[in-house]
Backbone:
């Protein structure tokens, strides 16, 4: 009698990531737990189809706090059959169990030690901490980059990924300040890299596009761009709105590309340098596709 693997490659990677974050946050993570073991379906009023599905289906990964499920993660890889996804999504929406669907792109998209899957788990705990403290205050806006510290993170402002990428350029820009325009040269010689920074994010539904730039000279910047989509279910309106503030991660991905382009530029490769008109054309294309501005810092008009 042959045995069957519990995980495929993507599910295994997702579980390992969830375990890393769970250990840092001192919560539990479980694998392949039946849907009916995570939500109370008896006398719940769900349809017969949903009831039968809940008895047979499982969650790939389930994060548990105080013996209660708080986040389900589904890995939708190349062999995934989506025909019953709507049932799982609908059950999570009905019972308000947060569910995120991820793929290899979320595992492979990384800002330093964090993949998008790491960030999604941290995001839920950050949102809940924020809403517990500021949920009734209309003047407080949720943004994960404002978190000064986070359990399991040794550095301050752990989710300001774009700034972290940018800070890595301070020393090499100091050493190669002669490559930059007159206005930029003096600032970079003093390590004031923030005065040449630009970045922005645009959102369409659950898809985010971001751009990160560093000025080389008047009218030209080193630029990186990034795009990532997310599928999120099982959250009430306020919680969902806060959770979907995922732009810092995508802006970090753009910052990582900008960083690589900057290192190449210091070696004489100009391909990452774009004109103001180039940047404006990129943004105009996004807007034409229906993306709306989430935030912008020093981007050309």
Residues:
């Amino acid at each position: 009698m042959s045995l069957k693997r519990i995980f495929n490659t993507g599910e295994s990677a997702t579980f390992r990531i969830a375990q890393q974050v769970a250990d840092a946050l001192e919560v539990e993570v479980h694998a392949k737990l039946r849907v009916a073991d995570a939500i109370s379906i008896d006398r719940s009023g769900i349809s017969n189809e949903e009831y039968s599905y809940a008895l047979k289906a499982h969650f790939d990964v389930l994060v548990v706090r105080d013996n209660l499920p708080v986040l389900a993660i589904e890995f939708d890889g190349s062999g995934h059959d989506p025909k019953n996804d709507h049932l799982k999504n609908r059950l999570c929406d009905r019972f308000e169990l947060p569910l995120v669907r991820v793929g290899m792109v979320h595992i492979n998209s990384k800002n330093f030690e964090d993949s998008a899957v790491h960030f999604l788990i941290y995001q839920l705990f950050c949102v809940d901490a924020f809403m517990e403290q500021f949920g009734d205050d209309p003047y407080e806006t949720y943004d994960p980059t404002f978190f000064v510290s986070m359990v399991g993170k040794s550095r301050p402002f752990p989710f300001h990924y774009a700034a972290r990428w940018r800070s890595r350029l301070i020393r090499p820009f100091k050493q190669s300040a002669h490559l930059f325009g007159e206005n930029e040269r003096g600032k970079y010689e003093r390590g004031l890299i923030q005065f040449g920074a630009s970045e922005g994010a645009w959102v369409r539904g659950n898809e985010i596009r971001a751009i990160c730039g560093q000025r080389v000279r008047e009218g030209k910047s080193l630029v990186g761009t990034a795009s990532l989509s997310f599928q999120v279910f099982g959250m009430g309106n306020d919680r969902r709105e806060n959770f979907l503030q995922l732009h810092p991660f995508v802006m970090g991905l753009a910052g990582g590309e900008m960083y690589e382009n900057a290192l190449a530029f210091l070696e004489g490769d100009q391909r990452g340098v774009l004109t103001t008109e180039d940047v404006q054309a990129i943004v105009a294309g996004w807007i034409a596709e229906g993306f709306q501005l989430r935030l912008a810092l020093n981007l050309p008009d």
